[in-house]
């Protein structure tokens, strides 16, 4: 991961994915367009209010804090060491990155993607049993406990679109940390 003196860190977009239908995985695309306040154009999870089925069942009027799902490509190598084959889009993410520690970002961090798009980090993806339906035993690899017994979720982060724009593989990702005390990510 690279760093700068102004509190920004950066990486690279390695893949972008979207799907207009509910399915666990999302096909890779040459580009995706982020729409301010909505999410990924044409993606089933785009919208002002929550679109994830379990959340809709609880309260369909909740704000959609899960408009764009980002995951770090380094996770794929980590689970490959344990016999799992995971590639971009397989876990339902919209943006796959390399070289930036997404899980260490605080809530409210801004991610600049490509030339114009900006998303605000809202929290951690809460992995569900669908991951085990995709590959049996994988859920245990993306959710675990640290040495203190604290729950660790590694299946990426969620965000909302602040500024729209086109995002492509190879685009830079630059994180800008919020001022003041940082609030660690929690599940959303």
Automatic annotation (TrEMBL):
Compositionally biased residues, Low complexity: 1-16
Regions that span the bilayer: none
Ranges for domain MOSC: 27-176
Location of the region described as Disordered in the Swiss-Prot/TrEMBL record: 1-22
InterPro entries the UniProt entry points to: MoCF_Sase_C, MOSC_domain, Pyrv_Knase-like_insert_dom_sf
One Pfam family per UniProt: MOSC
The protein's name in its UniProt record: MOSC domain-containing protein
Organism this protein belongs to: Streptomyces daghestanicus
Origin organism lineage: Bacteria, Bacillati, Actinomycetota, Actinomycetes, Kitasatosporales
